[in-house]
Amino acid sequence: MGILLSGVCLISMGWAGEDETAKFNRVLKLGAEAPAWEGLVETGGSKLGLENFKEQRAVVLFFTRNHCPMTGKYAQRIRELSREFSGQGVVFVGVNGSHKPGEDLQSMQKTRERLGWKFPYLKDPSGGLASKYGATVTPQFFLLDGFRRVVYMGAL
After folding, report:
1. What is the pLDDT of residues 133-148, one digit of tens each?
2. CA distance readout (Å), 57 to 6, 51, 90
3. Which fold has domain 2-154?
4. N or C: which terminal CB in the chain sees fewer CB atoms within 10 Å?
């Protein structure tokens, strides 16, 4: 698993040391316990929380919006990485906390289908989860290890 996480961090997403990440995230530090959540509605209608992924070896949590131009540019790479690592116990989870028009669950489902995402895409109606993670841009990624510690945060 260490090799997998190292590979995901170093090769696929880039790497920043803790001193670097502290410049960009004043809420979480690398190695911190990941903030849990529960009851966020997935585009299929299921309510999910971090606990639902306890069997996964790692969680790639990312904050996004349907109309985020950078998400559009990276959508194919996100899809490829999610497929590549799903067989190794890594789950991708998208979270949308936007209140702007076109960011409702129905629009999220259409976006998910259009982008070919097979992983959960959750609606955070309060936007509170992004605040707990210190996420300020989209897409913004957080890699949670098997102990649900934050081992990477930043861009793809």
Report:
1. 999 999 999 999 999 9
2. 13, 12, 6
3. Glutaredoxin (3.40.30)
4. N
